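Hi P.,

Sorry for the delay on this. The queue was packed all week, but I finally got your sequence through. Input first:
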Amino acid sequence: MTRDSISTAQLRDLVSRYDLSGPRYTSYPTAPHFAPDFAPAQWLNAQAQSRQSGRPLSLYFHLPFCQSLCYYCGCNKVVTHNRARVDQYLNSLEKELQIQAQLAGEQRRVTQIHWGGGTPTYLSHEHMRYLMALTREYFFVPRDGSAELAIEIHPGQTELETLKVLRQLGFNRLSMGVQDFAPEVQAAVNRYNTYEDVEALIAYARELRFGSLNMDLIYGLPRQTPASFAQTLKTVIALRPDRLSLFNYAHMPRQIKSQRLINESELPTAEQKLSIFNRAVQQLSDAGYRHIGMDHFALEGDSLVQAQRDGRLQRNFQGYSTGAECDLIGLGVSSISSVGNAYWQNHKSIKDYAVALATGQLPIERGITLSRDDEIRRWAINEILCHYRLNFAALEARFGLQVSHYFSAELEQLEMLQGDNLVQVGTEELAVTPLGKMVVRRIAMVFDRYLQGQALQYSKVI
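Then the structure:
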């Protein structure tokens, strides 16, 4: 299972032309375009439509606490040793669960749960049991294993006994934030976990019959080289996780204070980063992993691969997901919900989040109701990012439009990308080339109306 080779000259040319900033498209419109004047009537209407549709739900819980600071991290996090803060936070989460359950409909069926952070395994076993009990009290979570229950773990700070507790609670998917095995890279970003840590957790997780194991790696970290990252990836491949995410490190020290602790002179160049990713794609392809999209890879038997084949794959706030038929309710500080034709985000401050819930209000800070144009472009961008193609006939049939007219300006822009061998555009579809997959975010940006004339801060495409 190999792909067309990409030469050093092609990589260098990509950097010279496309080393620019752009969204990761975990939503469209993206979060910077959510508005603070998002009225209660808007989210109430979206909730009512969702309730009437009976669509299954996906629940995301943001658990922001960490016991140490990873310098690269851009997540909403709270580094603290004061465990009493968890009790206070769970009290607020219970209030939010209760309100959301009332709006969603009594005992609404949940087919996906994801605990993210922060470091969800910062919670004690008692806290974990309590939160899952609350969730099952307010929502219907099947106990037969049919629902996907996933959690992010820090392998350097997770005990084997914790995996046993998680399995008892119904979790069947683990995502390990490995990032890099090279000691010099770990020291540069203050994120430590050994190979032995990871190997022991994976062995026990398989003994406990977790259904899927994912590993997160980050390329572009300080002191990384193409050779060092290839060695990390070789080690990871030998452990044979079901899925892999290779995230592109976004160095944005103006927005993310912790990144100011990173020595910028030790960061790889854009050309080196692209070389790291190009080599990694080839390594994973040779090892039997399918390049799902952007930064996600999976073995052929994984549900992500099947969802892609079935046309059910989607991008959401956790990356790639099989839950295209679900409405997503985000719970906890800074969480984002995607319900029907609306997005909204909770307060980013724990204090503001708690105060809103203490007064019986949902802690919504901003949001947006999608226009028809938003829905059209969201679908087109999702097709490009999830399937590396955009079928024009399907788009026209779904939305009752004529592609050559509606996207006339976009088709002109695509001519330049076609000249650079990033896409092939015919009368029936747009198809992303192997070279284009390296910068697929740039291709999706063609269809983003909100980027026109905007000067927003996004991470680099490369």
